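ok, trying the design again with the full structure, not the truncated one.
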């Protein structure tokens, strides 16, 4: 029986890998296989790159910017984009690649430009909509929207609330969304909520 030629076997394996890689990139370039959350993130990133020159997006802002809820949904979409070489992904941010820009849907990316916030106020509006904040949460948000440090008692008084469980449950809910941070006496918006203009001192 003739023995298998190691060199031919290695060449066959390499050819198979190359073919697989070529197919993957061909699929990517044709836009096939991208849909849902992955396509939304890609188009939003392309729109931000085109409109504002932002190559990277903070991962903490993805829900507000894209309307996609669920950490696993976003994580799976980013894995797909990373594997297709459309995004560079780190724990802190994502960066669209040249191939990603090529793959983005121009019409959808252009349509998204209107919804991209370029001021803190616009960003706050998108956050309220994405998290479907209730009237009292919105009132609290608006009161501290300038980013200053406020005393909890002052905020409660101005909102007509008492320093009771209802007030502290309100604080907890806004903290859960990453909107506010607080200590035993004070409260303010998180740095994430101030992406465009600086805080008022």
């Amino acid at each position: 029986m003739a023995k298998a030629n190691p060199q031919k076997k290695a060449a066959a394996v390499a050819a198979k890998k190359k073919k697989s890689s070529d197919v993957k990139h061909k699929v990517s370039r044709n836009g096939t296989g991208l849909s849902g959350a992955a396509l939304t993130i890609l188009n939003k990133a392309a729109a931000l790159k085109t409109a504002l020159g932002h190559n990277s997006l903070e991962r903490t802002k993805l829900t507000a910017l894209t309307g996609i809820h669920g950490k696993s949904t976003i994580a799976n979409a980013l894995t797909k984009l990373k594997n297709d070489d459309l995004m560079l992904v780190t724990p802190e941010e994502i960066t669209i690649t040249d191939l990603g820009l090529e793959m983005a849907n121009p019409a959808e990316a252009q349509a998204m430009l209107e919804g991209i916030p370029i001021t803190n106020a616009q960003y706050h509006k998108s956050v309220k909509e994405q998290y479907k904040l209730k009237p009292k949460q919105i009132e609290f948000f608006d009161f501290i929207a300038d980013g200053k440090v406020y005393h909890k008692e002052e905020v409660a008084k101005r909102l007509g609330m008492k320093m009771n469980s209802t007030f502290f449950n309100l604080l907890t809910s806004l903290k859960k969304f990453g909107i506010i941070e607080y200590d035993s006496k004070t409260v303010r918006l998180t740095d994430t909520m101030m992406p465009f203009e600086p805080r008022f001192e």
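Keeping the full-length input from now on. Residues 6-29 form the longest helix (24 residues).
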